[in-house]
């Protein structure tokens, strides 16, 4: 599936709130191809030349439901100073989480959300996620922290029909948490 800005559904589409279904393992050829295409989209969206040529919005992650496909598939690619952290997961689930929160200082964004939704989105600073990783071609447990942990939680939320702005305190959107890790 060729993914670009036109194939991504927006939050005005009720399908974005659909709970995604688990996928069969081993992955079918169709699910494997979809997950590969999602990973390619995120990787290519971070390359300015490719993104401009193919009409891609910059992203660090995508969930299958954002393509109108209610399957538990996500791809996350987070560039860091010393390389890149990435995962292409089927049936991901958070198995442990820190008590300490973390949040992006300037708030979050989403391929499926065009309108501005300013505010802090509190998530767990550290998590462990289990699932099948297409990149490693095996079941994995990923220990994540920082931006990678936030991106994984954002995409996993999509699998339950939750959007980032659902987590913003509408009475105090820029509320501070002195204990939280600011990213």
TrEMBL record:
GO biological process per UniProt: translation
Q: Which cofactors does it use? A: Fe(2+)
So which residues are the signal peptide here? none
Q: SUPFAM superfamilies recorded for this chain?
A: Peptide deformylase
Keyword terms: Hydrolase, Iron, Metal-binding, Protein biosynthesis
Residues involved in Fe cation binding:
110, 154, 158
- What catalytic reaction does the record list? N-terminal N-formyl-L-methionyl-[peptide] + H2O = N-terminal L-methionyl-[peptide] + formate
Q: Where is the active site?
A: 155
UniProt keyword annotation of Ligase present = no
InterPro entries cross-referenced by the UniProt entry: Peptide_deformylase (IPR023635), Peptide_deformylase_sf (IPR036821)
EC number(s) on file: 3.5.1.88
Q: How is the cofactor bound?
A: Binds 1 Fe(2+) ion.
- GO molecular function (one): metal ion binding
* EC class name: hydrolase
| Role of this protein | Removes the formyl group from the N-terminal Met of newly synthesized proteins. Requires at least a dipeptide for an efficient rate of reaction. N-terminal L-methionine is a prerequisite for activity but the enzyme has broad specificity at other positions.
Family note:
Belongs to the polypeptide deformylase family.
**Can you say what this protein is called?**
Peptide deformylase
Source organism per UniProt: Faecalicoccus pleomorphus
Q: Recite the lineage of the species.
A: Bacteria, Bacillati, Bacillota, Erysipelotrichia, Erysipelotrichales
